Every structure is written in C-alpha cells, then in structure tokens.
C-alpha cells in the first residue's frame, strides 16, 4: 500500500481529474487555432501551452513560493509590469499620423468605447459584481493588454476568462464586424470615397505623445501608466534619434513580454477557475461588447456622413474598436468590395489608433472609481 501511495505522488495521471483533462484539451485547441488558423498565434500558443501545464498535477510549477508560473504571474502579471511593457511596444509600432491628419476621427474612436459600458451594464444585470463587470466591459475596447491590466487590478479571479475572450474575439474581428456594419449602413454610404489625408509634420508627431501624456495625466491620472507607456514608445519612434531603442522595444522587448503574458494568463486557466458557467457568460458578453462597440462607432460615423454632406464614409467608425490594425483592414476590405477605387485604410486607422487611447482612458476611469 505504501508503494502505491508513493506511486500516486509521483505519477501524474493517477491524480488527473476529468476537469483537468478538459482544460488540457482546451489548451490544445488554442494551440491548433494559433498554428492552423493563425488566430492571434503569438498569444494563443503560449496561453494554450501554459493552460496544459497548469492542469497537469503534481509538477509544482504553479505552487507558491517557487513555482515558475506562479512567479511569472506574481511578479510580472499581477504587478502590471508586462501589460505596460506591451503598451510601450505598441506605442513604438503605432503611427498616429492618420489621427493627427484628421483629429475629428478621435470622436469615432471614443464612440466605439460605448461597447465597454453596454457590456458592463449587461454584466451587472447578469449578476457580476461591479469590479468584475468593469473588467468584462473593457473587452469591448478590443485591446488585450488594457483588458488584462484592468482585470488584474479589479477582478483577478476572472483574468483567465477575460483574457481569452479579449484575444480570441480580436482574432474574430473579420467575422464579428461585417454583419454589424452592413446592418447599420446603406450601400450608398458604403460607397463613399474619401479625400486623401493631409501630410503631418514631424513636429506634430513629436509633440503629440508629449502633449497627450500631460493632458491624460492631469485629467485621468489612473490612465497614465497605460497611456504614458504608449506615448513614450511612440516618442521613441517619432523623435528620430532613438532608433536603436525604438527597434528594441518593437521587437525583442515586446516579444519577451508577449511570451510572459501568455504564460501568466495560462496560469489562471486552471480547471477550478475556468470550467464554470461564469466563464461561458464572460465569453458571451465579450461578443456583445465587440458588436455594440462596432455599432457605436458606425452610428457616429453615420452622423459624420450627414454633417459632411456625404463626404465621410460611416464604415470608418467601426475601426474605433482598437483591434489595430485588424478592424481598419475590415473597413478597407468592405470598402473595396463596394467600390474598387475606395481606399479607406488610412482613414480607418485614425479612429483605430484613437480607440487604443480611448480604451486606456476608460480603464483608468474604472480603476479610479472602483479600486
């Protein structure tokens, strides 16, 4: 009997429950989606593999105080270090010129954030507490690092489900958005060809991240960690004298941060935390958040269409969900389908990058009031 007891402590499959088997299968599905279907592979593959590891018993890799994945989560995810480093990389990779060339498109990015508040309200109605509802609502911002940052601060218990919803639906933007856009626009509106954007000066590009950081820091201080890192990365890109730093942030740093982000999120995907009705509800609310965010941007786009006497294509409002650059590409593809001469990509990139700032500010507001 003692021999059997020792074997039970050493052989993992003797301690494996059916719930853990299900989670291992789910982890495998994430890996397949990343490899075969190229759905956010840079994150779904690390998340999927980490989900497999944390549901294999007896390894100690998730246990305090020295388990590796425990350390990754405690010191890199729960401290918000990794989401902030990823925002630094995003800033260095983002070109804000389309937004600067047509500043009114910032309003389209802001309008798309309405999905955050609709999803938050729906979550409250479904019985989630206010902190959980806020973390779920941020999924509508279509910004993975912001979602993880907010959930880590406000509702760490649902981080795994919220992160999976955010990143899986970001990869499904080309499926979720077109039906919403078509339902809210006419063929005539989708056919609108917009004039080329003006050229933005280097001085404007350099001043933008500095001024934005100061304004956000004064108005919404709790959003400054996210927006500040985003703008610092952009300053490295645009100033012209820190090319080495910019390239490092865009490549090595963000790649390392992405690996640890995936492992840290996977750490939260244990069978106990993930296999419940609450997870299903979060996934459904994620779809609702994306759809209503798209609708909010398109509806304001329709108002712009009317006010401009038909010179603004309302579809560009859909890009206000900050899935950069996927939602802008959706708008471009739909525009070309309606009219082969219709080049909307740069016009859509304005609200697209504005959405990144908008979702970060929304997260800051939630954190300020709820933490």
UniProtKB/TrEMBL annotation:
<keyword id="KW-1133">Transmembrane helix</keyword>
<feature type="transmembrane region" description="Helical">
    <location>
        <begin position="343"/>
        <end position="370"/>
    </location>
</feature>
<dbReference type="InterPro" id="IPR005661">
    <property type="entry name" value="OadB_MmdB"/>
</dbReference>
<dbReference type="GO" id="GO:0005886">
    <property type="term" value="C:plasma membrane"/>
</dbReference>
<dbReference type="GO" id="GO:0006814">
    <property type="term" value="P:sodium ion transport"/>
</dbReference>
<keyword id="KW-1003">Cell membrane</keyword>
<feature type="transmembrane region" description="Helical">
    <location>
        <begin position="206"/>
        <end position="233"/>
    </location>
</feature>
<feature type="transmembrane region" description="Helical">
    <location>
        <begin position="253"/>
        <end position="270"/>
    </location>
</feature>
<dbReference type="GO" id="GO:0016829">
    <property type="term" value="F:lyase activity"/>
</dbReference>
<feature type="transmembrane region" description="Helical">
    <location>
        <begin position="73"/>
        <end position="94"/>
    </location>
</feature>
<keyword id="KW-0472">Membrane</keyword>
<protein>
    <submittedName>
        <fullName>Sodium ion-translocating decarboxylase, beta subunit</fullName>
        <ecNumber>4.1.1.70</ecNumber>
    </submittedName>
</protein>
<feature type="transmembrane region" description="Helical">
    <location>
        <begin position="12"/>
        <end position="35"/>
    </location>
</feature>
<feature type="transmembrane region" description="Helical">
    <location>
        <begin position="42"/>
        <end position="61"/>
    </location>
</feature>
<feature type="transmembrane region" description="Helical">
    <location>
        <begin position="282"/>
        <end position="306"/>
    </location>
</feature>
<dbReference type="Pfam" id="PF03977">
    <property type="entry name" value="OAD_beta"/>
</dbReference>
<feature type="transmembrane region" description="Helical">
    <location>
        <begin position="158"/>
        <end position="185"/>
    </location>
</feature>
<feature type="transmembrane region" description="Helical">
    <location>
        <begin position="106"/>
        <end position="128"/>
    </location>
</feature>
<keyword id="KW-0456">Lyase</keyword>
<keyword id="KW-0812">Transmembrane</keyword>
<keyword id="KW-1278">Translocase</keyword>
